Here is the input.
Amino acid sequence: MVPENLGRQAERLAGTVQPPREGFETLFMHRDGTRFPVMIYEAPLVDGAGRQTGWMSAMLDLSAQRRVEEMSRQQQERLQATARLATVGEMASLLSHELNQPLAAIASYAAGSLNLMAEPPTPEQQGLLRQAAQRIAEQAERAGRVIKSVHDFVRRREQAHETLRADLLIDAVMPLVRLQARKSGARIEVDLPRPVPRVVCDRTMVEQVLLNLTRNGIQAMETGTPLAQRELLIRVRHVQSRWVSFSVIDHGPGVPADVAARLFTPFFTTREEGMGLGLSLCRTVIEQHGGGLDFENVHDADGRIIGAEFRFTLAAEPQHGPAHPSRARQTDPSAR
Ligand code: ADP
Here is the structure.
């Protein structure tokens, strides 16, 4: 740091480079050798006659600010871990519900096979036995797929940002979304533009956001919405050339004004078993990505509320090469 500071001092005295108005950040060292971050502001010292007679610099110790930032980051991480566990807990109960069916089927095929095996089987019975063994294998595979979808989701923990096609994010959560949808009798529709845009994100975090929003949407339709109208739409759009929006649109009761005001406040919930962390975390995650998350009630032609749309944006993959955006997009190989 010393050569850096000496260099800057020499530049100031030579008058060749003007100091930045917003200051610059560097590291200083205490006498005991510990380093600490500082912000330095420099300005010319001008006398009454307008002559510059020297330089003045002010130094701000940033240690306390950094400590607060670090604490808030850690707190954020803890909250995210808590919400993740809550989702996993919910998933566990869905899982047991979903696994019951193949397990019950396996048990009854096995019982049937044992009955057939009591006597030496006729050729016809042998055919039935083969069929039963096949069904058992199919059901076991189905159960395995259900478990794998949850396992894949929970295991992926890396924090890195990557560029990937928007539909891959949706595909990753779809098995879990479908689990919940089936339980509530809801249908899921996905509407993607062609070519499918690519986004830059930490996929695990964004998948968690999608999962929370779809879960909320499905839950919102569970009580008041007739079965035929329980449809959840996930819509992706390219907005301007720099952003991609993801909307989760339900046909539930919408969000009343008093709830809307507190929707994104941590621990605000109207559900008995709710934690109220979902939306506040979703917004934090999206804002950490530089995007935004908001909602809007959906109205019919007569102005009646017919559902809610939760919408977030992520940065689109930066376009390189040709300046013309539509041509740039055409030449973009949208396969991953
Ligand atoms: P939780 O799901 O644990 O209640 P959230 O932060 O996800 O926590 O949601 C907070 C509240 O926002 C919910 O309790 C509900 O009242 C309201 N809400 C969220 N999503 C919807 C939706 N799609 N439609 C209507 N209300 C919603």
